[in-house]
Design brief:
single chain, alpha+beta, three-stranded antiparallel β-sheet, two-stranded antiparallel sheet, 3 helices, 5 strands, 40% helix, binds L-tyrosinamide, peptidase activity, ATP-dependent Clp protease adapter protein ClpS, hydrolase, protease
């Protein structure tokens, strides 16, 4: 922070803007066909959840229709969504994963 009073006698302030990165929620959506075990594996491998947390989140999505996998900066969230959608497509499951600004 810099308090400047130049030749004019007018006080000025300058500051370096350290913008906080926007955060994005990554959500899994329920469907009728993706196996529960596949969703648990996704939560373990992509979202680094323990088996217990992965099971709890999977069941919450199964029962509520949607559930949060985590909150991340934009590029991290985008990569996780892509990784989930690629794995789902490879395994021919209709699992959907989306991100939304927190
Ligand atoms: N509803 C699925 C089933 O009964 C399980 C499931 C859970 C699917 C979570 C998607 O995001 C999901 N096999």
């Amino acid at each position: 922070r810099d308090e400047g009073a130049g030749q004019t006698g007018v006080a000025t302030k300058t500051r370096t803007k350290t913008k906080k990165p926007s955060l994005y929620r990554v959500l899994l959506l329920n469907d009728d066909y993706t196996p529960m075990e596949f969703v648990i594996l996704i939560l373990e491998e992509v979202f680094n959840k323990s088996r217990e947390d992965a099971t709890r989140i999977m069941l919450s999505v199964h029962n509520q229709g949607v559930g949060e996998c985590g909150v991340y900066p934009y590029e991290v969230a985008e990569t996780k969504v892509t990784n989930v959608m690629d794995a789902a497509r490879r395994n021919q499951h209709p699992l959907q994963c989306v991100m939304e600004k927190q």
